[in-house]
Structures are given as C-alpha cells and as structure tokens.
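Margin note: ligand = guanosine-5',3'-tetraphosphate.
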Amino acid sequence: MRALEEKILSEGRVLEGGVLQVGAFLNQLVDTAFTREMADDIASAFAGDGVTKVLTVETSGIMIAFATAAALGVPMVFAKKNKTSNLDGNLLTAEIHSFTHNNTYTAAVCADYIRPDDKILIVDDFLANGEALRGLIALVRSGGASVAGCAVQIEKGFQRGGDSLRESGVKVYSLAIIDEMSPDGGIVFRHP
Ligand code: G4P
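Resulting structure:
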C-alpha cells in the first residue's frame, strides 16, 4: 500500500536493533481515517474468503483488527496476554515467545468466542519473526476453527516470519513489507 509506505517514510523512525517506531500514526497516536483506509485494503484482500471473525492479540493489533472487522461486517475478538478474573471457563491458549521483548506469554481467548464453524482472519500491526501469528494460528486450530489467513500493517521482511508462514501454506497479506532498514541508510520496501 503506497500510502502506508509514504507515511512510514515521512513519520516513522528507524531505531537501532531493527526496530521501526510508528507511534506517531499507527500504534500510539492513531490516525483513525488512515486506519480505516488500511482496513478497507485488508478487507478487499479477504473479501470472498468467508471470514466470520477477526482475531488479534492485545495491545497494538486491536485498532487495525477492529477496523478490519468493521469493514468486513464481522465481530472482532482479541486474545488476552494475562489471565485476569474476567477470563474464566474454558480457554483456548497459546504460548508466544517475543524475540523483540525477550519474553514469553500465554495468549488466551474464551473458548466460546471461537467456534468450530468459524473461519478466522488473524490481524496484527507488526509481523517480525511470526511467533505471535503462529501462536494465534495454533490457538484457532485448537478450537477446531479454520484460518482464512493473516494480515498485518507492517511486515519486517528481513526477519523471515512472513515468508516462512507463506511457505507453510498460510495466506499472508502485508500492507507494507520492509526488506532493509537502518537508522542512517533509509528503508527499502519489497514490491512483488
Ligand atoms: P513476532 O510475533 O512476529 O515474532 O514478533 P516479535 O515477537 O519479535 O514482536 C513482538 C512485539 O514487538 C509485538 O508487540 C510487535 O508488534 C512488536 N514489534 C516487533 N517489531 C517491531 C518494530 O519494529 N516496531 C514496533 N513499534 N513494534 C515492533 P507486542 O509485544 O505484542 O506488544 P503490544 O502489541 O502489546 O504493543
């Protein structure tokens, strides 16, 4: 999505350690009109795929997941990272390791919210090593539901998570794929 690439170039900041800061429009201060445009793009890519729900994991995937679900006219559900008192009964869970933050957490969704006849579109803001998406795919399948695919706003192509998911047969749609970036060398986008 050309408009997202332009936003990343004008408002994003490349930090040391392969981290892209996009809090100015994407995941802290949220450009709501632009989020709807991005969601419409994702919804078009999955129109006709029979999506019944959109799933993400808290926190910063929620905005694009909500907007995408609204564009598709389906509910949005998010996995919680911490088991709290308002999560009880049967749970679908997945252990997710974050290389960026060097921690492991359990993503959990009430089993009633993902049913065997659901076809789930998994949406997140970033795709790096793919651990979050892999965990959510496993969580969906453990509930007997199927995965329509995964969509993200920004894929860090140099971290291979997206390519390895595609190789395993999952439909992965990324609004922008960054193949190279450095604080002083700029950003190189992938164009298929
Ligand atoms: P992976 O799931 O693809 O393997 O990614 P990884 O564990 O490496 O990333 C985990 C977290 O770091 C995710 O947020 C992801 O959104 C975020 N992240 C990864 N790379 C970048 C980056 O370059 N810039 C920014 N801004 N975030 C990045 P999270 O831990 O789930 O946190 P949150 O959603 O609660 O904020």
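The longest helix spans residues 32-46.
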